[in-house]
Amino acid sequence: MLRFENVGMRYGRGPEILKDVSFALTPGSFHFLTGPSGAGKSSLLRLMYLAIRPSRGLIYMFDRDMSAARRRELAQLRRRIGVVFQEFRLIDHMSIVDNVALPLRVIGENPEIIDSHVREILSWVGLADHLNSRPMTLSGGQQQRVAIARAVINKPQLLLADEPTGNVDDEMGLRLMRLFVELNKMGTTVVVASHNEALIRHFKFPVMRLDAGEMTIKPQL
């Protein structure tokens, strides 16, 4: 699914943010990503969803060498990745329904199927009463749930979630994590970046830990 080989990352002439990072994610795996602020988590996620290229090292995704991938191919590969950003990145002039439906419309899904799937996922995240609302009328926690619904609506092969439970209460956080678990059971590879140690311990998935740009991966017993 995804493999890093001795990847280093720096911005301009600054110090390396990531140092010789090597790991492999098998299809259908689930990992947490954690570490102190400034450890390089955001840069690692940006590399994973193909927003930037590494300064050195190799990245393979879906059995393809990303160093040789052209811009058009990268755009096609990104359609197979769902991303939950900390800043949500919702489209303000579109309704909640239209925001969540966007990934399905891009791939030309049947409108009736889109409507059914969108209503189902918005009900799951507790937003069935806000279908026609605009993002700016919602709270931060509600916007985060919309962003999660949009990221998972097309059942991506790889889901990357950056602090997806950071703006919701514990009960909703557990509910959202269970949504990720169910998606994982259907075959999606999942990486969840989180500082919530209690949440990480609750779900017992392996932990990718970054510290000063270096990575270790440990199972949870």
Principal-axes geometry comes out as globular
Average pLDDT taken over every residue: 91
SSE-based structural type: alpha/beta
Query: How many strands?
Result: 10
For the largest beta-sheet, the strand count, sense and barrel status come to: 6 strands, mixed
Cα end-to-end separation: 24 Å
Helix content: 25-40%
Instruction: Provide the low-confidence segments as ranges.
Output: none
Describe the SSE topology:
Blueprint: E1 2-10, E2 16-25, E3 30-34, H1 41-48, E4 56-61, E5 64-65, H2 71-78, E6 81-84, H3 96-106, H4 111-124, H5 140-152, E7 158-162, H6 170-185, E8 189-193, H7 197-203, E9 207-211, E10 214-218
Parallel strand pairs: 3-8, 3-9, 6-7, 7-8
Antiparallel strand pairs: 1-2, 1-4, 4-5, 9-10
Helix pairs in contact: 3-4, 3-5
Structure write-up:
- This protein is α/β, with parallel strands linked by helices.
- The chain has a domain at 84-155.
- It has seven helices and ten strands.
- It has helices at 41-48, 71-78, 96-106, 111-124, 140-152, 170-185, 197-203; strands at 2-10, 16-25, 30-34, 56-61, 64-65, 81-84, 158-162, 189-193, 207-211, 214-218.
- Helix 3 (96-106) crosses helix 4 (111-124).
- It is globular, with a radius of gyration of 17 Å.
- The model has no long low-confidence stretch (mean pLDDT 91).
Short overview:
The chain is α/β, with parallel strands linked by helices. The chain contains seven helices and ten strands. It is 35% helix and 25% strand.
